[in-house]
Amino acid sequence: MTEITSIPVGKYFTSREGHRLHYHEAGTPVAGKPSVLMLHGSGPGASGYTNFKGNFPVFADHGYHVIVPDYLGYGLSSKPADFQYKVDAQVELLRELVSHTGAQTLAIVGNSLGGWFAIHHAIHYPAEVAKLIVMAPGGLESPEKFVPEMEGLRELFRIPTERDFSIASMRNLFNLFMNERADISDTVLSERLEIARQQPVEVYTTMGGTVTTPRLGELVAPMLALWGYRDKFIPYRHAQILLDHVPDVHLITSNRAGHWFMIEEPELFNQACLKFLDR
Predict the structure, then answer these.
(1) What DSSP element (H or E) covers 39?
(2) Most exposed: 134, 138, 201, 216, by fewest CB within 10 Å?
(3) Alpha-carbon gap, residue 204 to 156, rounded angstroms
(4) Mean model confidence pLDDT for the chain
(5) 3-class DSSP assignment, residue 199
(6) Can you tell me whether residue 262 is helix, strand or coil?
(7) Could you write out the DSSP letters of every residue in 83-111?
(8) Average pLDDT of the segment spanning 5-11
(9) Into which CATH architecture does domain 11-278 fall?
(10) What are the pLDDT digits (tens) for 50-67?
(11) How far apart are CA 130 and CA 34, in angstroms?
(12) How many CB atoms sit inside 10 A of residue 184's CB?
């Protein structure tokens, strides 16, 4: 029986503890090349496909093995209400999935929450990570120090907490992700709305983990950071934290982008990432 969903169905993996993770995969592991693990951000209805559908086929066409998962609680993955959605727990599930695909070493691409996961992974398991690409990563500062000033982040947490999944609220949230307000299509709304309504509030109320800044100096993998100057979710000043503490980092900034760099600047993103990976 064909599964009917708001996003394309890829593959499924069941973890040792019985959690079912959905993911898209392109290609197979290539000797001498890291597999590319693309980690999406948070937000109602988020998934790997919606974050990276304009990017991961380009990486695959360039000869990379690409893995695009939905975290537990997101996309088409299981959504248990009794799970603590902390960074360390999510990263361990992702490591299980990566092992299942046969990937040996990784180039991790992470947006927002995915950037937090990527940095956490590289700090705790440096031998597994060859390169890091992050877009406005979370986890660089305690939330109370910046959430009040970020309009987008406040709305991101309000919607699932109040269960306000109206078309108007979701459309407004997606516009906040971008620098310039866009005509958010019905396709974008439908890709996320159905998933958002299935997510338990615990996905947001138990989210979090240890701030990574004190350990950034331990990173071995070189990093490429891309940041939209008009970001309404993670303050642009956090880019300076990376510049100050990461041993090997290059920063690309766009004043035409907000929080969705890979969606707002797809050509710049794809070209810069592939150049960095091929270096």
Answers:
(1) strand 35-39
(2) 201
(3) 9
(4) 95
(5) coil
(6) helix
(7) ---BHHHHHHHHHHHHHHHT--SEEEEEE
(8) 91
(9) 3-Layer(aba) Sandwich (3.40)
(10) 999 999 999 999 999 999
(11) 7
(12) 18
C-alpha neighbours within 13 Å on the C-beta side of residue 218: 14
Report the length, in residues, of the chain. 279
State the Cα–Cα distance between residues 23 and 39, nearest whole angstrom. 11
Q: Are 134 and 115 in contact (CB under 8 A)?
A: yes
- The DSSP-derived string for 155-172 is HHHHHHHHT---HHHHHH
Distance between CA atoms of residues 85 and 76, nearest Å: 16
Q: How far apart are CA 221 and CA 216, in angstroms?
A: 11
Q: Which of 23-32, 150-159, 179-188, 236-245 has the lowest mean pLDDT?
A: 179-188
Does residue 231 contact residue 136 with C-beta atoms inside 8 Å? yes
Domain boundaries, the chain: 11-278
Percent helix, percent strand, percent coil in the chain, to nearest 5: 40, 15, 40
Q: What pLDDT digit, counting tens, does each position of 159-192 carry?
A: 999 999 999 999 999 999 999 887 677 778 888 9
For range 195-223, the mean pLDDT: 96
Residue 236 DSSP code: T
